[in-house]
Amino acid sequence: MWILMLEAGVALFLLVFIVWWTMFSGRPEERKRPLRDDSQPPREQGQDKP
Q: Maximum CA pair distance of the chain?
């Protein structure tokens, strides 16, 4: 019975470790870009011509 508990503990540890690893291992800082550029306001419909 203790072997099953040990196996379940190892499986739980691996699951938590894999989730932690994927959450906190992002891209290097020099490759990070914002998802969108908020520096310019969005255009409203009907104002495509200057």
A: 76
User: Per-residue pLDDT tens for 1-43?
Assistant: 999 999 999 999 999 999 999 988 766 665 666 666 666 666 6
Structure tokens at 5: 């508990």
3-state SS string for 20-39: HHHHHCCCCHHHCCCCCCCC
Residues found in the chain? 50
CB-CB contact of 22 with 16 (8 Å): no
Quote the CA–CA distance of 28 and 30 in Å, as a whole number.
6
